[in-house]
């Protein structure tokens, strides 16, 4: 059959069943073997950095809309940056609430990613189960924040929507319900044989490559790099104990399992945070316009998210620059794809969890 | 003709296209396909292929780069077809109204039949939008003869 | 020929694909329930069919329609031959030709997805046709190649052959782990990608006839002198095979095309072979 | 094999699917659905209009109306927070889809939380595909 082989170029996306978002990967195929890959990004470039700099008060809501999957991480990162400019100390209560909400969002994001991987390798039922458990968290955050996607809970100086005692109870109950379900999912992801056949050893991305391409988050942790920005102790992560989940296999399976294990870790962190909630105000007032420059980092579900903010005491910000996790991870596909089979492409692409909306922003 | 209309209403095949949204509404569109909202009970399935689709669920404010793609997709879809703009940014482009690289809403590029408000549009709102769109079939069929 | 028999046969030829449509609806419902969701009504495939027929056609080229029509015609002919009590082997080959037309239809357009989908469909045919052929052969050898003279009750003789039919059904119903041609994550809708509206309905119709024929072959495993018992048994075996494929679909990821071909050409054929060898040694049957 | 057991179990379990639209939607009480004006309290200071991140609000001081474009409002709750007279409130019901973008106009002559519905003009897409 190889003598008949001719190079076919097939475009994946920007509108494609396996991708949620407009990402365009051009694959050069020989038979069904990928011999070349090319990324074409920018379908989602809206010009956010310009718009974000127009009015720092309104930008707090716009920055959530950089991305709906980790919207709360964006707004927390942004608020952290501005709080640094103001030099205010955020109350512990607000920091704990941020931590809890960020972990909830990590759960929804990781379950989405896991379901996505299952779907990409043709395991429809597992995809459905992941999304079923995800809905439990989605309804929980809907009850806590008032919206399923954009929590809009942050203000500069804390959180504007407090979590009452019944809501604490609600979180506890939901976490109790979710944990066994996640454990069951974990068993399937770990042991399922057909899933294993499609993920073990697929899309290898060894540690030197992961370091070279500057990947972050679960992608780098799955390649053995023990880096997790949460160890910096932003928000209330200094108050909780956890060790980053690191795997050495560096394949699709490892990236999948890192996320699966992190889901359970998130449940642990949330449960650990709840009893720590102190009484007192959830926000402090800030006065005047900000000046100076600041970096702010959080560990978003997909890795390190960084905001650079420069302000000169006006409503407009002088410059705001985002460095988002997917921007670092997506290009790494160019290292993973060549040499693989067409059938493995969706799995590999989805395993880095490409979110284009913040890559292009 | 009522047989055809009945079948139409009960078999809306969906094409979802993200034209530069924040993913919020896309996730809610996906939530529609999964156990909790499961629109397959209305016969709706995600076909991801314009040639098979009846209803286009479009999210996002339409970035300049997606504009031609969107128009292409619309033209490739065989009629009768309906377009649902999902979410605020697909309806009016509002959340991104200060961004320079967007067209500001799906209806600037292709005709839209149903506008679903919300940021993010709730799955229930999307179901309402779908139901509203399906009730427009009759009108659409008269128009197209 | 007896006019009554003719009417009955005609009715079966019309009703069998409709029954397949219903079974596909049941399939979707059961799949949904296994995934803990509500799922479509069981008559959903008919809604889809009527809607597709009413859509305005977009034609890529005439060849495409010709192939689609030929595919439908051959599958229908295979079923007709089967119902009319004709030769099982000829019906098998006619049905096989129908599948080839599907591939040709996929190759007749210029889309790379369609091209790859066609290639994979060809591979799928390569994988299931030999097993199906051997199954038909062993059924025929055990009883008669003429369906009209077929006397069954072969379940006891050929249980492994029936087992080999399960993966065949998995491929034909486009289910995991062997839903390789229409793998929508990779190829959107594979060989069907450039068909729209009524032409897609023709392709789906061809599929229904083909399934009706293959399920017909499966009904041959069961036979009883009492016609009612016989019919019930036939229905039961069809539903059983279908149920097993649905369960398999829901507990597996898609495997690669190499694995599919390897599995069918080794395990599939081995099952039939072992069964046949056993029968030659112990002609009295297994049970 | 745990997928096998869970699949078979699901077969006899009640589906997780909601009954919506046949049953009412499950909207939590704290949901940020849509903003409502109680026009008797409004002093037309325009704070809500100015602070809205998506310019969804138009305050008309002369006609004594507040107009909100539902397809622009992202339910961020800011207008509710800035209003000095608690004129605004957020209700859990979400805005409904329509065949055109919708604006709701609140006026002093209307009862509390009632509004006139306005349909905004639709753009029909660019006519002959501007390539
Ligand atoms: S800004 Fe980017 S897209 Fe634009 S011309 Fe330069 S390189 Fe090309
Ligand atoms: S800096 Fe921004 S606004 Fe100015 S020309 Fe470049 S893209 Fe346009
Ligand atoms: S990486 Fe970017 S697009 Fe992806 S979830 Fe995070 S912010 Fe959103
Ligand atoms: S990285 Fe973002 S801001 Fe910079 S040029 Fe590219 S699109 Fe513009
Ligand atoms: S309407 Fe809001 S949530 Fe939906 S895609 Fe647009 S910005 Fe995101
Ligand atoms: S902020 Fe309140 S009082 Fe002022 S115009 Fe708006 S609704 Fe009226
Ligand atoms: S809730 Fe937010 S977006 Fe909506 S009208 Fe009020 S300020 Fe504007």
Description:
- The complex is a heterotetramer of chains A (361), B (145), C (287) and D (131).
- Chain B has 6 helices and 5 strands; from the N terminus they run H-E-H-E-E-H-E-H-E-H-H.
- With 145 residues, chain B is α/β, with parallel strands linked by helices.
- Chain B has a 5-stranded parallel β-sheet.
- Chain B starts with a helix and ends with a helix.
- Chain C is mainly α and 287 residues long.
- Chain C has one domain.
- Helices cover 72% and strands 0% of the residues of chain C.
- Chain C is globular and about 55 Å long.
- The mean pLDDT of chain C is 81.
- Chain D is elongated.
- Chains in contact: A-B, A-C, A-D, B-C, B-D, C-D.
- The A-B interface holds A 14-17, 20-22, 42-48, 50-51, 54, 61-62, 64-69, 71, 112, 115, 127-128, 131-132, 134-135, 138, 147-150, 355, 357, 360 and B 15, 17-28, 30-31, 34-36, 46, 48-49, 60-61, 63, 65-66, 69, 73, 89, 95-96, 98-102, 119-120, 122-123.
- One iron/sulfur cluster binds next to helix 11 and helix 14 of chain A.
- One iron/sulfur cluster binds next to helix 2 of chain D.
Tell me about the biggest sheet of chain B? 5 strands, parallel
What separation lies between the terminal Cα atoms of chain D?
A: 54 Å
Which class of chain B in CATH terms? Alpha Beta
Specify the number of helices of chain D.
Answer: 3
* Rounded radius of gyration of chain D (Å): 21 Å
Offer a few descriptive terms.
heterotetramer, A: 361 residues, alpha+beta, Cytochrome-c3 Hydrogenase, chain B, 2 domains, three-stranded antiparallel sheet, 47% helix, B: 145 residues, alpha/beta, Rossmann fold, five-stranded parallel sheet, 6 helices, globular, binds iron/sulfur cluster
Topology:
The complex is a heterotetramer of chains A (361), B (145), C (287) and D (131).
Chain A: E1 7-12, E2 24-30, E3 33-40, H1 48-52, H2 56-64, H3 71-86, H4 92-120, H5 124-145, E4 154-155, E5 158-159, H6 165-191, H7 193-199, H8 207-212, H9 217-221, H10 252-273, E6 291-300, E7 303-312, E8 317-323, H11 325-329, H12 333-336, H13 345-351, H14 356-360
Antiparallel strand pairs in A: 1-2, 2-3, 4-5, 6-7, 7-8
Chain B: H1 2-10, E1 13-18, H2 24-33, E2 45-46, E3 55-59, H3 64-76, E4 82-86, H4 88-91, E5 114-116, H5 123-135, H6 137-144
Parallel strand pairs in B: 1-2, 1-3, 3-4, 4-5
Chain D: H1 2-12, E1 34-37, H2 47-51, E2 57-60, E3 65-69, H3 78-82, E4 88-91, E5 102-107, E6 116-119
Antiparallel strand pairs in D: 1-4, 2-3, 3-5, 5-6
Bound molecules: iron/sulfur cluster (7 copies).
One iron/sulfur cluster sits between chains B (21-22, 24-25, 59-60, 87-89, 95, 119-120) and A (65, 68, 149).
């Amino acid at each position: 059959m190889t003598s008949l082989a001719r190079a076919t170029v097939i475009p994946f996306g920007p509108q494609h069943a396996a991708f949620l978002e407009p990402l365009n990967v051009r694959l050069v195929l020989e038979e069904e073997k990928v011999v070349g890959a090319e990324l074409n990004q920018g379908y989602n470039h809206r010009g956010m950095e310009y718009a974000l700099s127009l009015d720092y008060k309104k930008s707090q809501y716009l920055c959530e809309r950089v991305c709906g999957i980790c919207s709360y991480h964006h707004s927390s990162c942004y608020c952290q940056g501005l709080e640094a400019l103001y030099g205010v100390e955020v109350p512990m209560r607000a920091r704990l609430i941020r931590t809890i909400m960020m972990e909830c969002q990590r759960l929804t994001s990781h379950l989405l990613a896991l379901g996505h991987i299952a779907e990409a390798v043709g395991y429809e039922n597992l995809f459905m189960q992941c999304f079923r458990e995800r809905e439990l968290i989605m309804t929980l955050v809907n009850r806590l924040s008032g919206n399923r996607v954009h929590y809009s809970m942050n203000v500069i100086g804390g959180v504007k929507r407090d979590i009452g005692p019944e809501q604490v109870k609600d979180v506890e109950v939901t976490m109790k319900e979710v944990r066994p379900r996640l454990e069951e999912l974990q068993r399937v992801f770990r042991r399922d044989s057909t899933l294993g056949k499609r993920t073990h050893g697929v899309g290898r991305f060894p540690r030197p490559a992961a370091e070279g391409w500057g990947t972050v988050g679960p992608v780098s942790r799955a390649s053995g790099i023990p880096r997790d920005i949460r160890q910096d102790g932003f928000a209330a992560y200094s108050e909780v104990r956890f060790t980053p989940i690191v795997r050495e296999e560096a394949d699709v399976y490892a990236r999948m399992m890192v996320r699966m294990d992190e889901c359970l870790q998130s449940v642990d962190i949330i449960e650990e945070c709840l009893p720590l909630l102190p009484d007192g105000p959830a926000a402090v007032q800030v006065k005047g316009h900000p000046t100076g420059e600041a970096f702010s980092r959080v560990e978003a579900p997909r890795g390190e998210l960084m905001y650079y903010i420069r302000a000169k005491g006006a409503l407009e910000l002088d410059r705001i620059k985002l460095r988002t996790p997917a921007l670092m991870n997506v290009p790494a596909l160019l290292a993973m794809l060549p040499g693989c089979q067409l059938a493995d492409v969706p799995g590999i692409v989805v395993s880095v969890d490409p979110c284009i909306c913040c890559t292009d922003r | 003709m009522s047989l055809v209309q009945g079948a139409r209403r009960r078999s809306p095949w969906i094409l979802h296209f993200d034209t530069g949204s924040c993913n919020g509404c896309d996730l809610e569109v996906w939530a529609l396909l999964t156990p909790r909202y499961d629109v397959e009970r209305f016969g709706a399935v995600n076909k991801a292929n314009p040639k098979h689709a009846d209803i286009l669920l479009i999210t996002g404010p339409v970035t300049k780069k997606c504009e031609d793609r969107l128009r292409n997709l619309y033209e490739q879809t065989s009629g009768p077809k309906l377009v649902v703009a999902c979410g605020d940014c697909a309806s009016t482009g509002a959340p991104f109204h200060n961004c320079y690289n967007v067209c500001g809403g799906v209806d600037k590029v292709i005709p839209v039949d149903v506008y679903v408000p919300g940021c993010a549009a709730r799955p229930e709102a999307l179901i309402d939008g779908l139901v509203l769109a399906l009730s427009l079939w009759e009108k659409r069929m008269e128009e197209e003869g | 020929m007896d006019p009554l028999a003719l009417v009955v046969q005609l009715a079966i030829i019309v009703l069998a694909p409709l029954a397949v449509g219903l079974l596909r609806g049941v399939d979707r419902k059961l799949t949904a329930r296994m995934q803990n969701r509500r799922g479509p009504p069981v008559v959903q495939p008919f809604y889809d069919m009527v809607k597709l027929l009413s859509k305005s056609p977009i034609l890529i080229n005439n060849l495409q329609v010709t192939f689609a029509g030929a595919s439908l015609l051959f599958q229908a002919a295979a079923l007709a031959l089967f119902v009319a009590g004709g030769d099982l082997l000829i019906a098998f080959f006619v049905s096989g030709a129908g599948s080839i037309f599907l591939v040709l239809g996929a190759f007749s357009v210029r889309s790379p997805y369609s091209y790859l989908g066609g290639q994979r469909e060809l591979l799928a045919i390569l994988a299931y046709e030999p097993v199906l052929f051997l199954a038909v052969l062993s059924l025929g050898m055990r009883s008669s190649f003429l369906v009209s003279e077929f006397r069954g009750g072969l379940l006891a003789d050929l249980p492994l052959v029936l087992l080999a039919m399960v993966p065949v059904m998995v491929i034909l119903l486009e289910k995991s782990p062997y839903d390789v041609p229409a793998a929508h994550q990779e190829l959107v809708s594979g060989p069907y990608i450039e068909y729209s509206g009524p032409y897609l309905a023709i392709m789906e119709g061809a599929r229904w006839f083909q399934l009706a024929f293959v399920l017909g072959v499966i009904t041959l495993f069961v036979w009883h002198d009492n016609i009612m018992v016989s019919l019930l048994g036939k229905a039961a075996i069809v539903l059983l095979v279908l149920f097993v494929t649905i369960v398999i679909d829901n507990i597996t990821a898609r495997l690669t095309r190499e694995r599919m071909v390897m599995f069918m050409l080794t395990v599939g054929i081995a099952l039939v072979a072992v069964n046949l060898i056993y029968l030659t040694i112990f002609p009295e049957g297994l049970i | 094999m745990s997928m096998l057991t869970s699949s078979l179990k699901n077969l006899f379990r009640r589906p997780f699917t909601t009954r919506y639209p046949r049953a009412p939607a499950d909207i939590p009480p704290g949901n940020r659905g849509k903003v409502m004006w109680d026009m008797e309290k409004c002093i037309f200071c325009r704070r809500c209009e100015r602070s809205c991140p998506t310019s969804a609000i138009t305050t008309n001081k002369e006609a004594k109306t507040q107009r909100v474009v539902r397809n622009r409002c992202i339910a961020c709750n800011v207008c509710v927070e800035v209003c000095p007279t608690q004129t605004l409130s957020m209700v859990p019901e979400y805005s409904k889809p329509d065949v055109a973008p919708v604006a709701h106009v609140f006026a002093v002559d209307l009862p509390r939380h009632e509004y006139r519905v306005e349909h905004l003009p639709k753009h029909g897409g660019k006519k002959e595909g501007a390539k």
